[in-house]
């Protein structure tokens, strides 16, 4: 990434402490059928108290994960000019990018995004009166030649796991298992390959700055280097999620927080850097169709007022994506902007 750009420097209050608190106790849920009777209560506890959990015996073949991790390493090892041949931009947000911003500070990372299902559409602009849609077009590099195939195979496995988890979350809220499924028709789920090069200023910069995920669920595969930190709901401390072999890290997104009327909460997380090792991870972002209006579910607001006004997911998504490309003079759009005043 060349010389250190001041755009990477976090404000003083958001700089990471290099003395790391390790979170041994982030819930680890065994999804094997032998443990099925415990799944719903464990999911409820994890979503309510942590907003994050890990799953093991999840059904995703280890070979599928190994192949996409190998292909990601090959892609990010390419010369910069090769990677930039498939650069994303504000017109088509799928492809390679190395100047992403979170909370208006540049992240120490490079990414490759691709949409899971084609065709996939999002609103053409954040303007609420603009009804035009645009198609998300995947850009596949010439090398490695297997990247497209392994990504598409992995995506199918991620969608199966995501629907399984969504059903368990629905049951944990006292709803039918398939309550959320219709929201995910025509969805624009996407996968992000992440590469975090060694950072000479790990005390000043972050791989990804503090943020909450705007989607319904995120499924993360991280390597053995680690670096993901979660902000505890109990005391506001940042704790590191220790890498556990063959697990996936699941975090509840903003959409589930709104649907549940704050029964479950999306929590802040970030990625710490180190000066010695590069880090790789793969994120799967699970979200409803662009046409879906997100609001607290009627079944979960009986006897209490909805805590959020309805918002259109597609418009929310494209508004948030604008802040990824460049530093803006305004705060990123958050679900808090739709909170009903008490």
TrEMBL record:
InterPro entries: DIOX_N, IPNS-like_FE2OG_OXY, IPNS-like_sf, Oxoglu/Fe-dep_dioxygenase_dom. The keyword Oxidoreductase applies. It comes from the Eukaryota. Keywords: Iron, Metal-binding, Oxidoreductase. GO terms for molecular function: dioxygenase activity; metal ion binding. PROSITE patterns: FE2OG_OXY (PS51471). Coiled coil: none annotated. Transmembrane segments: none annotated. The keyword Oxidoreductase applies. Residues 187-288 form the Fe2OG dioxygenase domain. Belongs to the iron/ascorbate-dependent oxidoreductase family. This is Fe2OG dioxygenase domain-containing protein. It comes from Vitis rotundifolia (Muscadine grape). The lineage of its organism: Eukaryota, Viridiplantae, Streptophyta, Embryophyta, Tracheophyta.
């Amino acid at each position: 990434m060349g010389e250190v750009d001041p755009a990477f420097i976090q404000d003083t209050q958001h700089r990471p402490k290099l003395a790391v608190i390790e979170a041994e106790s982030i819930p680890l849920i065994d999804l094997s059928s032998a443990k099925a009777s415990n799944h719903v209560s464990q999911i409820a506890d994890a979503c309510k108290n942590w907003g994050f959990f890990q799953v093991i015996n999840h059904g995703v073949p280890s070979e599928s994960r190994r192949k996409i991790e190998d292909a990601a390493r090959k892609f990010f090892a390419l010369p910069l000019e090769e990677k930039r041949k498939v650069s994303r931009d504000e017109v088509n947000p799928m492809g390679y990018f190395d100047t992403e911003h979170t909370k208006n500070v540049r992240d120490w990372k490079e990414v490759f995004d691709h949409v899971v299902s084609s065709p996939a559409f999002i609103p053409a602009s954040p303007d609420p009166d603009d009804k035009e849609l645009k198609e998300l077009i995947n850009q596949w590099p010439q090398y490695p030649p297997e990247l497209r195939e392994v990504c598409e195979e992995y995506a199918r496995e991620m969608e199966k796991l995501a629907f399984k988890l969504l059903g368990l979350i629905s049951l944990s809220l006292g709803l039918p298992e398939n309550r959320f499924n219709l929201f995910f028709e025509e969805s624009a789920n996407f996968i992000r390959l992440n590469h975090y090069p060694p950072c000479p200023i790990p005390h000043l910069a972050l791989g990804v700055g503090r943020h909450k995920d705007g989607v319904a669920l995120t499924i993360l595969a991280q390597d053995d280097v680690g670096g993901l930190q979660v902000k505890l709901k109990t005391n506001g401390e940042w704790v590191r999620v220790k890498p556990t072999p063959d697990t996936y890290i699941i975090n509840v997104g903003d959409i589930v927080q709104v649907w549940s009327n704050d029964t479950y909460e999306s929590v802040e997380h970030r990625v710490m850097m180190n000066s010695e090792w590069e880090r790789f991870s793969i994120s799967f972002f699970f979200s409803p169709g662009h046409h879906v209006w997100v609001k607290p579910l009627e079944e979960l607001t009986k006897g209490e007022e909805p805590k959020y006004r309805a918002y259109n997911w597609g418009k929310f998504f494209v508004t948030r994506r604008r802040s990824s490309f460049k530093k803006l003079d305004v705060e990123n759009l958050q679900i808090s902007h739709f909170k009903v005043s008490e």
